[in-house]
Fold these 2 entries.
Entry 1:
Amino acid sequence: MAANADSAICMSSLTLRPEHSLYSRLHELKDFYCSQFGHEPEFFVRVPGRVNIIGEHVDYCGYPVLPMAIDQCILLAVGRNEENSFLQLRNVETKRYENFKCDMSALRIDLPQNSGPQWYNYYLCGIKGIFEQIQQSNNKPLTPIGMTVALSGNIPPASGLSSSSALVSAAVLATAYVHQSSPLDRKQLASISARCERYIGTQGGGMDQAIAYLAKAGCAQFIEFHPELKATPIQLPAGVCFIVANSLAAKNKAASSDFNERVVECRLAARIIARHMEFSNWRGMIRFVQLQEALQCTLTELEELVLKWLPKDIYTRVELCARDLDVSDEEFEREFLTVNTRHMTQFKLRQRALHVIQESLRVAKFREICEQTSLGSPTTKNQLQSNGVNGKSNGSGVNATNGAVRDTTIDSAKQFALLSQLMRQSHESLKKLYECTHVDLERLIALSDDAGVGARLTGAGWGGCIVACCDSMESSTKYIKMLKENYFKLLPSHLIERYGINDFDDVVFATFPGNGAELFELNC
């Protein structure tokens, strides 16, 4: 897994001072590790969560997305024991997460049939994936090295901020460092981590893992997946800040079939159009980006083909087998469905396809506006402040100068209005065409609309968070205050008791683009 200097994750050294944003958490994690294992950790891992600004449910179709890393992260304290092959895993939230121990030479991932995976199964996915990669690269069996791991996480689970993917990615990075002598390549680690999460049953596209490794402080990342993984830094317009609000309607995408149902519908739509276009390899065209490349057409032209070849609102399993695909029901189930979607009998192919194509057009437009806006906006020292271990957040969550007056020209105001409009359009598409919203998300969106703030659900949906776009620090402060008064302070009493203790700052906050995954030793 060789890497050049620019793409490698290398061990760094952190001198921890009280003003550091992770000071308390790292001290707590180190003390917890020592109490659990009787010795100090050898190194630490930090992997951030993410918020996707725009580009939802398009990565697994091969199209670009525009996420950024957030302050919330997974932290690991790690030690090794070359005398055995045991993994010992502890979570600082001992009342919520049970301890786990296993022999990594006989690794198994047991998934329950009727509930979500246990927290440690995500970690095991990371180990399994990196072990397979190392064995394939070395062309010989791997002898596992024992690991003692303590974990601290403050990414809200099942919120659409990539808590599970951050955990998988952290496991990949820690295990790779212990078992590899060569530098670790960020892109390759991202690709491995994306494959790993499929062991848990989720057919994701790789966005979460890509931003976890490739994020850069001070900018979002335009992440492409085809023909290969590529990240391009995108400077967000000066003054613009993004607000995350957690509906607290939790949805674990691995615990239900909703997410994979959408993946299946997109794959079916691509294959049916490919078959109509008489491609001999239509069965293998499972992503729209493959189909578009084969057709050598634009997204707009692909949209016209969707309307032509997928005219119906609902397709039944029977008609898909008999007419559109010419396969038996057994073959349909085996080749076109996943384990947790075999119950499906109806499919909304046109709606899902239209969302993917139109959302991809919105991503491209959003990038174009950002690049036009940033041409005349010099990057300031404040804009480059990091929330990684070797820097600290500016605390404002704002991509802005230090109190400087912005150029409030008509053009910049129009550009901000266009960004807000794109976010609103994205949400409407997710609501009407992809049907992945939730009543509590809709409450947050309605409040945002009333306040004149562009917002959309972020993450897989069916609960979780919204992301909103404000044009200044002042407007974002007003917006957050409004949401606290009109949503969060009206929650059920048990949620107010849990989250109101710090004025709901853990569930509604401004966020600032941070760095990707890091390995470091701690100097206290």
Entry 2:
Amino acid sequence: MRQTGGGATIDSASPSRSYFTEKRVGLGNNSYLGLSLPGSGGRVGSGSKKKKVTKAERLKLLQEEEERRLKEEEEARLKYEKEEMERLEIQRIEKRKWNRLEAKDLERRNEELEELYLLERCFPEAEKLKQETRMLSQWKHYIQCDGSPDPSIAQEMNTFISLWKEKTNETFEEVIEKSKVVLNLIEKLKFILLETPPCDLQDKNIIQYQESILQLQELLHLKFNVATEILLRQASTLADLDSGNMEKVIKDENVTLYVWANLKKNPRHRSVRFSETQIGFEIPRILATSDIAVRLLHTHYDHVSALHPVSTPSKEHTSSVTELVKDDVENVEKAISKEVEEESKQQEKQSHLIQEEKLKVEEEQDDIEVKMSSAEEESEAIKCELEMKVLSETVSAAQLLLVENSSEKPDFFENDMVDLFQFTTLGGVYHLDILELPPQCKPVKGWMIVEILKEGLQKYTYPPETTEDFETENAFPPIEVTLEVHENVIFFENPMVVRWDAEGKHWRTDGISNVSYKPNERLITFSLDTFGPVTLIQDAHINMPYQSWELRPLDVNKVLLTVTTVFTEIQIQIKENLCMLSSVKLKDKKHISVLEGTWMTPTPFIIALKEAGLNIFPTRYSHFYVVINNKVPLVEVKAYRQMALLSSTFAFGWSKWNLLCNSTKVVFKV
């Protein structure tokens, strides 16, 4: 069949038919050929009668289309199956490889855990060594026979205190000499409270030690007052030839005394400066004309602030573990004793055998004795192992207590009260007192006659409780005081001056004005409304948080810890159970400290650094005053323990990511 139209001719039998078949648009009954023939100027059938597609042709076209679709689907399925098989094969190979790695890692981990268990035995062994050292220190004190009491024995302490109370008429120099023994006893008692594990401290012992400390502190201050009174009775004989007033300075490593007695009562002599120092007072007219003495007793220690409470953990867990292990020990002992009894019964039976088997019986007896000795050795080994287990639990509980944060903030403090959990006293305490001048000694026919007042040394009340007899309102102005800051103390900022409130038993910031500090001369001047103990304080967390830290090995069991803060860089050497301050840098300049080069055990070392103003040691209340990323205590303790075990071989350092991770993770560089 031929069809013409638009100048185009198509032979139905020609191959061009397939061209139009593949390019059809639609397969319905009303389908049309919508393509133009090459070389023609119009659509197929546009100018002639359209061809009608038969049913057979439509079926054939549909069949071809279905076959092509099935072929494409089959190819796609085969391709998918091939890719899936390849993927599964790769996954199987990766899984097999991962399983091999896991098995190898598990094997390595088991070996490392066994090694770790062996290494961690050093913690209870170290605690056992500390216990033996404490026992040895008591023995050393006993064999010294130096006359000083054992601070841990209440009877000896009571005897020492009673005997010293009975001594009278001691000079200031004698009291200073005796104070060295007293301060040593107080220091030992504080170390006992700090170094003894909480599980080994009973409540009655804590109370006993704290009471002994308070009694020694009160008695020492009382002795200083009595010695001051004896000194002031001789003021007229010690008067200065130029001014006519008495001035005395006594210096010691722990105490410095400045005393001025107003003998001439010259109203124009209001400025008091002790010889060769800038320390002194500017007293008002009312005091310049009174029978008074001004005393500045600078104690390089703080016996005024209240004692910090001793941390005692909940002993439920430790006691339960201890009871459990004790039961195990008892069970082992019972089993072994039963074994020994059976062996001895056998021995008795064998002893009744006939004489002919005597040699055999002796051999069996030897075997029984060997078994009994081995059983006893096994019993001792098991008991030792269980004791180490108890000790390990105790050490873990004590270490956990060191890093645990308190859940409750310290008691609420008023605006003028000083929070000693946030601030720390530095440089000791300056006891400023205005005293009534006691009756003076009078020489009579080669004798010295002096009137001794029954009430002892009396303080002069300034300002007086009633001021009605005085004309002007400003008759009792604040007294200007100039003090010297202790040379071995570092202040990173200007120190704050606070006074002691005897009634409230705390430090306060009110009643002090016109404070000025000269860091080069280390002099601080301020005006005080009323006299009493004053001290200088600094923020206890001024060096926290650290900017960086590093722990680097130097030798076997010897490392160097470097802590960098905003104000300073501190290097500490650590070997075995000793610490030493290696160097201190302030503003990139080396600072010479008296602590450098002195090896000390950890607790005295930490206290010495705090007293020198180099406090880099957080407490359980520090998280209330410093913004940090608190960690779970157990995680922190485990990290410290692993660092301690590896510190002789690996170096450790801080990581910025530790601040960004959560509280259950610890990140640092190794």
